[in-house]
Amino acid sequence: MTDTNGGENDAEEEVEDELLLEIQQSIIDLEEDRTEELTKQAIDEGYDPLDILQKGLTKGVKTVGDKFGRGEVFLPELAMSADCMRAGVQHVDPLLADLELDDEDTGGKFLIGTVDEDIHNIGKNILITMLKANGFEVVDLGVEIPNEEFVEAVKEHDPDILGMSALMTMTMDHQEEVIELLEEEGLRDDLKIMVGGAPTSKEWCEEIGADGYGDNADAAVEVAKELVEEHRAAKA
Ligand code: B12
């Protein structure tokens, strides 16, 4: 199994930078305009777009998610935090699109979707931007993809990698179910499988027999590159 925890851009790291902390706080305060303004300021000041994304925006939205989990805020606040996130991401996204992690262009084909009963797509879409920036051809199936639809899409698109995003403990089992279905259809060994999303982990990836995990988009792209190479080498 291939994985990485994201190295220097690890979202779990303690953030000390004032502006990044302000970006986090603007999401916690649900001030969408402020998030947008501060994100633009950070871009103008030359901050690394991955830092803005991971140490600012993502940490902020996850804090609101934690409060929601503890019953301290409710669905309207959760939705507003997503609006804040998007207000920032729309400005970071074009920079991510230009961000090649290295010179190597593997030219891999990545099929991706969010699993059934799950509508979360902000993280998936960020990952897609970064995969494309790194030379991947991406087929995005969208959200709430039934297990069988993943299998049909694998048959249709013949990807190097299938990626499944799941943001909820009650939907992550679909990742395992899709792998089982692919096994039943004799397709499992013809592709690499990556899993991601907040409740997933390296351990979960191993447990369900996936090939790779990434806890953020740049880590995931690095893993994807290795897996494409492995896949191409095995096919050669
Ligand atoms: C924003 C948000 C929403 C938004 C989603 C908007 C959208 N279009 O995506 C809205 C308000 C709509 C929403 C709805 C709900 N949500 Co919500 N939501 C969140 C929140 C706060 C942030 C998610 C997010 O965007 N994070 C930012 C991105 C950048 O990070 P990310 O998604 O993790 O993605 C990164 C990595 O994980 C990785 N990655 C992601 N996908 C993949 C895939 C692959 C293959 C790989 C390799 C890597 C990878 O790369 C990404 C980029 O770095 C989370 C809290 C959290 N801790 O995640 C709760 C959370 C996921 N939601 C939760 C819940 C319960 C819900 C609702 C059921 C609430 C309700 N009562 O209706 C509904 C779900 C409806 C449904 N059927 O899906 C819970 C789930 C709890 C659980 N244990 O399962 C959470 C954890 C909040 C909580 N603590 O309670 N939500």
Automatic annotation (TrEMBL):
Identify the SMART domains for this entry: B12-binding_2
Pfam families recorded: B12-binding, B12-binding_2
One GO MF term attached to the UniProt entry: methionine synthase activity
UniProt keyword terms in alphabetical order = Cobalt, Metal-binding, Methyltransferase, Transferase
Q: Does the keyword Transferase apply?
A: yes
Q: Which GO terms describe its cellular component?
A: cytosol
Enzyme class, first EC level, given as a word? transferase
The residue ranges of the B12-binding N-terminal domain are 10-104
Residues in B12-binding domain copies: 107-236
Q: Which SUPFAM superfamilies match?
A: Cobalamin (vitamin B12)-binding domain, Methionine synthase domain
Judging by the UniProt lineage, the source's domain of life is Archaea
Q: Which InterPro entries match?
A: Cbl-bd_cap (IPR003759), Cobalamin-bd (IPR006158), Cobalamin-bd_sf (IPR036724), Corrinoid_p (IPR012741), Met_Synthase/Corrinoid (IPR050554), Meth_synthase_dom (IPR036594)
**What CDD domains does this protein's entry cite?**
corrinoid_protein_B12-BD
| Entry EC number(s) | 2.1.1.13
> What PANTHER family does this protein map onto?
METHIONINE SYNTHASE (PTHR45833:SF1)
Assigned protein family: Belongs to the methylamine corrinoid protein family.
Q: What is the name listed in the Swiss-Prot or TrEMBL entry for this protein?
A: 5-methyltetrahydrofolate--homocysteine methyltransferase
